[in-house]
Amino acid sequence: xxxxxxxxxxxxxxxxxxxxxxxxxxxxxxxxxxxxxxxxxxxxxxxxxxxxxxxxxxxxxxxxxxxxxxxxxxxxxxxxxxxxxxxxxxxx
Length: 92
What we know:
Elements: H1 3-17, H2 23-51, H3 64-73, H4 77-80, H5 83-86
Helix pairs in contact: 1-2
């Protein structure tokens, strides 16, 4: 599944949340929205791992911190300048 597909799915569940008043209607849509939304970052990081040639192994957990460390270790300025890294402040 591509990042674009995941974003469309997340948007679908976000729209499904609007107007839901009962817990029974709201909860499954919220759960799906949150799970898909979290997966978007995972897919972006893996796509950028490949794009920038960081060669972080597939078996290694890929977090922004891992991505930044690999980019710094390789002095990969393109990877360090990508938006997913620049927009994150929690792992500075």
